Every structure is written in structure tokens, then in C-alpha cells.
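Dear support,

Our group has been running a series of protein-ligand predictions, and this particular one with pyridoxal-5'-phosphate is the one our PI (initials K.S.) wants archived with full inputs and outputs. We had some confusion internally about which version of the output was final, so please treat the block below as the authoritative record. The input we submitted was:
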Amino acid sequence: METAAAKVSWKIPLFKIYWDEDDIEAVNQTIRAGMYWSCGPQIAEFEQGLSHYLGTKFCAVFSSGTTALHAVLWAHGIGPGDEVIVPSFTFISTANAALFVGARPVFADIEDSTFGLDPEDVERRITPRTKAILPVHYAGGSCLIRELREVADRHHLLLIEDAAESFGATVDGKAAGAFGQSAILSFCQNKIIATGEGGAVVTESKEIYEKLKLLRSHGRLESADYFSSTDYLDYVTLGHNFRLSTFCAALGLAQLRKANRLIEMRRNNARLLDQRLVGIPGVGVITPPPGYHHVYQMYSIVVPGGRRDGLMQHLAERGIMSKVFFHPLHKTHFYKAELKYDCSLPVTERVSQEILTLPMYPAMSEEEIDLISKHIRGFFSGAR
Ligand SMILES: Cc1ncc(COP(=O)(O)O)c(C=O)c1O
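Confirmed final output from the archive:
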């Protein structure tokens, strides 16, 4: 029997990738070029397009958001003996990034208005070993990034943003990802713009940008293209292969060209969902704070009173996928049992019990939105 957890063909999945002929043509052209499948000119073009879009000075693309996180902490010189303050209410690679460079992730609690790091709790967790604050912009929104910037500045700490989920989100017109010294993005298949796998670091620092380029490609000084030049290119530091392929960069450029349209489609769907869900007793619709432009990479609701899992099951039985983003990291086997984390994060724990992410994608139809709303209403009115 098919269980909800293992269902392979949902009537309404959690997300669908938006793609068009422009995407296909971009990748086809790269294939047909017959060379530069690695390190092609589309890489720099995509980087320029991303920094232009976000209003940041520099951008270096990576093979994933996770390798971008690893590289950005590495480039900022974070290492053994250092602490990095992160939320527990996030995808696991936010915290793991600190471990990758030998530092310790320190979990701070979130607050209810954005589900991002609570600036006051962050401040309480600062120690002489704290090197950076690494907040997450949740689900297409922005965290209290201006307040976190103030905390970071007051304590002379780095602010490195995890904007994996929030490409295009803004606070008073300034992009999520443009507030810290550096930020990361993800282009995994469920993100605002997608390249299958992919990521980027945007930064205000030329020095960090130069380091990132070394770290992502074996520590090699790339004064010429390695694959088509006979020049000796020296290796000046330890590096990895964290490069994005040219296909992904070409696809990313095509996706970037339609990013505004994709975001508008998501925002419109969120508005329709809000309208239909707002009156249902038992459902908490999430409203971003004033001045916060949300891009709805995900659409989450709050279901208090212990009914969240029942609703998830009810929707699954009707072919509608929903999912918990996120279960807290400090409760995972890895952090709790292996690394022996024992922390008190009451808001994180409550929100993780109540949050439910519903389907959201640009090409959602109004019929799909009606069906989701109808079954949520049915669950709370006791209809089968
Ligand atoms: C908040 C957050 N950080 C980091 C990542 C990692 O990105 P990627 O899947 O591209 O490695 C994700 C992706 O799910 C994420 O949601």
C-alpha cells in the first residue's frame, strides 16, 4: 500500500519546476558549442547577472548552496575554535557549513514574525569565540536582517546571510543577501530560479571574491582558461572542485531573465491562498512585516493545537503534498546523539510543531488553489 510518505505521484506536488523553450535553447546552445562545458563564458555572465539583480558588488557561483556555504565560511577565515550562530529552524547545511571548516555551530532561537533568528537571543549567545552570525531568510521571506546587522556591528562580528530560499526578497527595497558582508543562494530544483543543482556567494568584498574563486577550483590562479591554455597556472592554496557547470550557468541565465515574472506568479498564488485560508479557524496565515517583499519560495501556514500532522495526512489522502519545513536541527540524530547538542529553543520547537508547508509553484492553477483550500476547510469542519 502506498503511504503518504512514499507517494510518488501527487495530484498536487509541493513544487513544480517552471521551464520554457528559452531554458531548453540555452542548454542546447551550450551542448552544441562542443567545448567549454566546464568554465564557459556563461559562468561570468550569470555571476554578473546575479550581482546586478541583487545589487551586490561581486558574485561567484558554486555547484550547490551547500558548497557555497562551505566556501563562504572558509573564505572568511572561519575555522577551528570559532563559533558561528545559526538557527536550528533551517536546512541542515546551514549549520553543517560551520562543521565543514572546523568551527562550531551555536543554535539561537527564532522569532514569530519572520521565523528567522531572534536578534535578542542571538545577542545572548555571543561569546568571545563567536566569529559570525549566519541567519536564514525563511521560505522566500526575509529575517529581521537590519536588527541582526546592528547586533553584528555592535559586536564586530561577520554577518553572512543564507538567502538560499529567498532570491528576490527585499526589505524596504534592499535585497535579502545584500545586508551582510556575504550571502549565499541556492538554485536547487525547488528554488525561485533553478539550475538542477547550483549555488552562489554574493559579497561586498573583492578580497573574499578572489578567495572564493581560488577555493572553488583547486586553489589554482586562473589567469587563463585551464582547459584551453598552455600557460602554467600555479596552485597557491588548498582548494576544492566546487564549480558550477556551464550548462547550469546557461540555464541560470535563462531563468534569471524571467525571475521577476516567476516571482509575480508566486506572489499572486500566495495572495489567492491567503484569501481562501484566512478565515478558517485552526489555520494561521503568515503575513510578512510591513516593508518586507516576500517571494514565496514556499507557502507555509501555522496549525496550532496538535492538529498539524492530521492535516498533513488528510491532504496526502487526497493527493495533496504538504511537508514540515523545518524539523529542528538540534533534535536530529546527528546533532543530538552524535554531537551531544542539548539546547533550549522554545520558539523553534513550538514553530516546528505547528508549521506546515503547502504546495507553491509559479504555474499553479486557481483550481489547484481551490482544491487545497477546500480540503483544508474540510479537515477543520470535520468533513471527510
Ligand atoms: C536555508 C537553506 N540553506 C541551504 C540550502 C542548501 O542548498 P543546496 O540544496 O543548493 O545545497 C538550502 C536548500 O534546501 C536551504 O533551504
